[in-house]
Design goal:
The chain is mainly beta. The protein is built from 4 helices and 24 strands. The longest helix has 8 residues, at about 240-245. The relative contact order is 0.16.
């Protein structure tokens, strides 16, 4: 599985005129459950289904099952995996077609940090996390697939802090044209894009970066001065342990989530609830299981029903 031709890479600093805009951002961190396994990995090339360049000594990468791979939308993202022995942070660079939803296939080196290698297959929990620590100087680079030209253009964004949700280019009429993303993680315009070009990248969290003056170059990755940010609300979210604790409180669920107007707490049974922001500030409290949240700003909030039991929900304005 996971066989693609190796590409040739290089590095060239290109000064880009840039503009950044931030739209609605929501944390992509729902905890998933499945089984963890290991394989040889794809260190030392771009042999994974994501066509990502993986250093020869980089064993902190993984393949996701078909569902969570999501047609290559997960490529370039990072996940925090928790097993019986510990946790490990991995970059998604590959696909595991035979894995079930929630499963993660990782290198043996990574597997050894969450379980005993002899176990081979263990239960895991994981969620998406930023790839880089806050304040990191890592920047996005633009990579053109071999064969790209003004008549057929294939682009991949590398070294991203969060997964790329979409990539667009500006045409001669100053309209943004969305590029189709292939299973092997390249955004392709079959008609080609005139070089130099202006690109607009949107992260899975909704942030948009505009990269200008990008020229087609199939031998050298073009460096930008841009990186996707992590919203402060995502930085302050609960840890895996806290999430697992709240999710084990089986009787209760929140609906709908995300919510625009009224949040329903199923299974409250006349218990007192508190509605908090992510800094722990009390905003509302009561016992009515139907909560009017229309006046809340969009973002992530918590419902507390016991001293150490929290439920998270997202407020939208549409």
């Amino acid at each position: 599985m996971k066989k693609l031709n190796r590409l040739t890479f290089g590095f060239l600093f290109v000064l880009c005129l840039v503009h950044i805009s931030i739209t609605s951002q929501e944390c992509n961190d729902v905890v998933k459950e499945g089984e963890g396994t290991y394989y040889d990995g794809v260190a030392g090339g771009s042999k994974g289904n994501c066509s990502s360049l993986v250093a020869a000594n980089d064993f902190y990468h993984a393949a996701l099952n078909n569902i969570n791979y999501d047609g290559s939308n997960a490529c370039g993202s990072c996940i925090l995996v928790e097993g019986p022995k510990g946790k490990v942070k991995l970059k998604v660079v590959d696909r595991c077609p035979e894995c079930k939803e929630g499963d993660v296939d990782m290198t043996q080196e990574a597997f050894s940090e969450i379980a005993e290698v002899i176990d081979g297959r263990v239960p895991i929990k994981w969620h998406f996390v930023p790839c880089f620590n806050q304040g990191s100087n890592q920047k996005i680079s633009v990579h053109f697939k071999e064969g790209s030209s003004p008549f057929w253009t294939a682009i991949q964004l590398r070294n991203t802090n969060h997964a790329v949700a979409s990539l667009e280019y500006k045409n001669s009429s100053n309209n943004w044209i969305k590029m189709n993303r292939e299973l092997f993680n390249f955004f392709i315009e079959p008609k080609g894009i005139t070089s130099p070009m202006e690109l607009r990248a949107t992260s899975i969290l909704g942030e948009q970066l505009i990269i200008s003056n990008v020229s087609i170059n199939t031998t050298t990755d073009q460096q930008t001065r841009l990186q996707f940010n992590t919203p402060e609300t995502c930085n302050n979210l609960l840890s895996i342990e806290e999430l697992n604790h709240s999710e084990n409180y089986e009787a209760m669920t929140l609906f709908p989530n995300p919510v625009t107007d009224y949040l329903i707490i199923n299974g409250l049974e006349e218990r007192q609830w508190k509605l908090l922001d992510l800094n722990g500030k009390l905003l509302l409290n009561g016992k009515n299981p139907k909560i009017d949240v229309t006046l809340l700003a969009k973002g992530v909030y918590l419902i507390q029903v016991e001293e150490n039991t929290f439920y998270r929900f997202i407020k939208r304005n549409f």
